Amino acid sequence: MRRDRIGLLLLCPALLLVLALFVYPLFYGLRLSLQPRAGGLFTNYTDFFGDARERETIVNTLRLALPATLINLALAIPLAYRMRRRIWGQRLITGMFVLPMTLGTVLLAQGMLSFFGPRGWFNKTLLLLGISEEPIRLVHNATGVVISLSIAEFPVVFLLLLGFVSGIDPTLERAAQMLGAGAWQRFYRIILPLMIPGIATAFALSFVATFAVLPSAVMLGQPAGETRVIALAAWQAAYERFDYSAGAAIAIIMAGIQLLVLGLVLGGRSRLYRGPATGGKG
Amino acid sequence: MTVDGDASGHVPTRRRSSIVASPSVWLVYAFVLFFLALIGGIFFTVLFSSFASTWFGGWLPDGYTTRWYRFSVDEFSLWRVLRVTLIVAASVVVLSLLIGVPAAYVLARRNFRGKNAVFLLLLLPIMVPPITYGIPLATMLYEYGLAGRLTGVILANLAPAFPFVIVIMIPFIEQIDPNLERSARMLGASPFRVFTRVLLPLAIPGILAAGLLVLVRTIAMFELTFLTAGATTQTLVVSLYYAAFAAGIRPTQSIDAMAVIYMSTTTVLLLLALRFINPVQMVSRVKQ
């Protein structure tokens, strides 16, 4: 039909733009990474994996991304589970969790430097309550970066899981209760298995986001040492050594690791139970 | 609900279950308070510091002054930075709405072959972290001589912005009854009139929400601007990063003054956006 074709034309600007600003640059980067300043096709890649300092950035990044993601899941799963039922101030609470999103990682890092610093309010409170004898070192090391990643990513993980949990039909739980299952049993045997796909999605997305950490690793960590993350290595190659080819190669390696984890987690997810857990929502 | 109207023998059961449930509710509130204390602590540390004449180790600053705001206006060429931020953010909002809303309409209303593939392709720039595709994108923009200029910064920021508009707008458009369009068309309205008189007024809350969220995200977008901006095209957040990065040179209070300006802008905009949209929608639609 003619009208349908005209309708589809409305989609064209968006499609062209995503091709120009996302798909083409990725292929451009891939091609660029295979044209090193000197040496053969894969020189950039063999250089990266051959140099211990460069190779280590992958481990450094994993040491930040994995703890932050796991902490967030451990906190968000019980919270989302409880918040699926109405509690007082629900809208306010979910709204509040969005706040760190607006603060942005740069501002969060700048504020955390003082707040978690040796003379900041956090350490002062710990001393006051007698929890610690002397200030704990929470900034300019990996701990600071993990804390900042947790604060920044928690809202996403929580809201994602909340959306997922509220899609689980409450009658399933009521049926279990009627058959004599206790609260823990209901969570462990009914809700948790149904939440697994949501948890897998949240894990994958949170990991991908935290694996790309840059500003907080520089500002709150030790960018020359234990928090020299892979994004920083890519940036230094492109913008400090002006070796765009090597920078593109490291960015491609970073994307490869992210895709690998996404593929493993989401691929594994599709092998789990995917039956009807939703009660005709939407 | 199911127990309502039952024999009175059921009432104790309900009471007991509400008492059993209450510790978990208190845990939720305790956690929320802890989280709020962290965010509030970070926020107020920055706020107090920006007004502090000096602050050495005490609970509160030693004295108060507004000098750092004047200092940071001069030191960081704040007016230029604010103007750049405004131009970039406004252009990104307008362009991404112009491109995103029609596309969202098609995706919400029509079925065609390859629709899922198109949708996935449009989701990718939101799901892939900006730093991952930002480096190749910035390199490409440098190649074409666009990076370092406003055009380049706007284009780079557009990459995740218009897909975000599409994702936010689809549920809003799905909520509009297609019969309204059909009846308008049957009564002889041209497609353009249907759009301006029927669709647009009904979609305004969604458009406002999407626009405000894109505005907030663009102002807060560090990575893409950082990779494409030149010395004169830095936005607020990038200039904040450079200021904090070279912290030794300038007093912390002046950086915090800039942070407060940045923070108040985004928070006000976000609170406005939350009036139109439920936060759960913001992520769960994006990531299914």
Task: Explain what this protein looks like in three dimensions.
The complex is a heterodimer of chains A (about 280) and B (about 290). Chain A is mainly alpha-helical. Chain A has a single domain, classed as MetI-like (MetI-like fold). Helices cover about 75% and strands about 0% of the residues of chain A. Chain A has twelve helices and no strands. In chain A, α5 packs antiparallel against α7 and α9 packs antiparallel against α12. The longest helix of chain A is centred in the first third of the chain and has 32 residues. Chain A is globular, with a radius of gyration of 23 Å. The model of chain A has no long low-confidence stretch (mean pLDDT about 85). Chain B is mostly helical and about 290 residues long. Chain B has two domains: about 45 residues; about 220 residues, MetI-like fold (Orthogonal Bundle). Chain B has twelve helices and no strands. In chain B, α1 runs antiparallel to α11. Chain B is globular, with a radius of gyration of 25 Å. The relative contact order of chain B is 0.12. Classes of the chains: A mainly alpha (about 280), B mainly alpha (about 290). Chains A and B meet through α1, α2, α4, α5 and α6 of A and α1, α3, α4, α5 and α6 of B.
Q: How would you sum up this structure in a few lines?
A:
In chain A, 74% of the residues lie in helices and 0% in strands. Chain A is mainly alpha-helical. Chain A has a single domain, classed as MetI-like (MetI-like fold).
